[in-house]
Each structure stands twice: as C-alpha cells, then as structure tokens.
Design goal:
- This protein has a domain of 103 residues.
- 30% of the residues lie in helices and 20% in strands.
- The strands form two sheets. Strands 3-2-1-5-6 form a five-stranded antiparallel sheet, with helices on one face. Strands 4-7-8-9 form a four-stranded antiparallel sheet, covered by helices on one side.
C-alpha cells in the first residue's frame, strides 16, 4: 500500500469551530452594543429632518408674504385643501395666500401654494392652529413655540420658537435639566402630553 499518497494533502482552507464561535461572539457583542445607539441616531435624525422641514416652511411662507406683498398663512391640514382647525401638525400642513389674513382658504380668493405631507416616526407636533404673515413678513397670528415629540417623550422633545418678527429659532435647555424649555420666556419645560 502506498502511504505516500494518503498522507499527501493540500493546504487546509477554512476555520475551526473555535474560531467560528469566537467570531460569532464578537459579532453578537458588537451588534448588541451598537443597535440601541443606532436607533437613537435614527430617531434624532428623523426629529432634525422634521424640525428643518417646519422651519423651512415658515421661512418660505414669510418670503412669499414679502415678495407677494400680501398675507400668507400656514396651518395644519389633513385634506390639503383647508385648515383642520386643530393644533397638531403631524398629519401635514400647507402654505396658502390669505388675502384677509383670517387663516381660512377662501374659495376664489386664496390659493394653496405648497403642501407638506405628514411626519413619520410617531412624531407629534403641537403649536397654534395657524401662523399668518403680513405683507412685510411680521407674524400677525400664531407666534410662539412649536413642540416636536416622539415615542421617547419629553426627555427627547425638541422645538421651534416663532418670533413676531417672523424669525425662527430652536428651543434650548436653559436650566440644565436636559429638557428643552417651552420658549415662553421662563425656564419652563416643554410638554408632550
């Protein structure tokens, strides 16, 4: 019997069982640590995108009011043709010409300029029932704060403050409790209820 042929093997390719178990353990630990941080990152990015969309729509409405020299309003809507009358904006909102600045799309007089679809990610946006800009870009109705909350609650809430001058800024935490203030001038926390 020729034992020389039986013992002749090529180079071994592959992993041992111990190497596979060690690699799987390292991978599982990495995934376990990384996933919660990634979920928060996704939620934070979703909130930032929503806040930026709201902020840009305020600036767009203000710009339209100045360039058209007439009243322009924003309001929450669910059908994209009329204001819903409520104070929750997460279902969508619209910008429209508002000749009499009453916050109502008057047939034959006013026209819808732009609509914004609902915000994703179980986001709740609470603000006044409308914002109306005058022909010189000043807020005539609806100045104040807009609060954006998601499923994480008040600890992760963010918001915008709309000044009567028409400018928008982000709500800040001024008292150091890691909850943004409501923008009313005193360090009172926002509410997500």
């Amino acid at each position: 019997m020729n034992t020389k042929c039986l013992n002749k093997r090529g180079p071994q390719a592959g992993f041992t069982l111990i190497e596979l178990v060690a690699a799987m353990t390292i991978m599982m630990l990495t995934v376990t640590i990384a996933i919660p941080g990634m979920l928060d990152m996704v939620r934070n990015n979703r909130q930032s995108t929503s806040l930026n969309a709201l902020s840009h729509s305020f600036y767009a409405a203000r710009s339209e009011a100045i360039s058209r020299a007439q009243g322009i309003s924003l309001c929450p809507t669910s059908n994209f043709t009329s204001c819903s009358g409520g104070t929750t904006w997460q279902s969508g909102w619209m910008i429209f010409t508002d000749a009499d600045r009453d916050g109502v799309v008057d047939s034959g007089v006013d026209s819808v300029l732009k609509v914004f679809n609902q915000l994703g990610g179980a986001t709740t946006v609470t603000a006044s029932n409308r914002v109306t800009y005058s022909a010189i870009g000043m807020v005539q109705a609806g100045s104040g704060a807009m609060t954006l909350c998601d499923q994480r609650g008040v600890n992760s809430a963010r918001g915008l403050r709309l000044a009567t001058t028409g400018f928008v800024d982000y709500l800040q935490d001024t008292d150091g409790d890691k909850i943004v203030d409501d923008g009313a001038g005193s360090p009172t926390n926002v509410s997500c209820s």
